[in-house]
Design goal:
There is one protein chain. The chain is of the alpha+beta class. It is globular. The protein has two helices and five strands, in the order E-E-E-E-E-H-H. Strands 1-2-3-4-5 form a five-stranded antiparallel sheet. It starts with a strand and ends with a helix.
């Protein structure tokens, strides 16, 4: 089960935790679209964000099943 949290510091910013413990952060833009940031293994940094037209499009572009599942869960929420 994917855990979805809404950030208290920034509206429209979601923190997703996958079943495998991977952290995915999603910034939903008010004008549409989103940026997705995935935490690097063993580090405190996040990768550069990738821009997408929607969360569903982001989910389709990733190969890892746990990340896909987390993004689809946010798209359906």
């Amino acid at each position: 089960m994917t855990r979805i949290e809404l950030s208290t510091e920034c509206p429209n910013y979601y923190i997703l935790t996958t079943e495998k413990g991977k952290t995915v952060e999603v910034m939903m833009h008010t004008y549409g679209g989103c940026h997705v940031y995935i935490k690097q293994n063993g580090g405190s940094r996040f990768s550069l964000g990738k821009a997408f037209g929607s969360v569903a499009q982001a989910a389709e572009s990733y190969k890892r099943q746990d990340i896909k599942t987390a993004l689809y869960a946010l798209a359906e929420a």
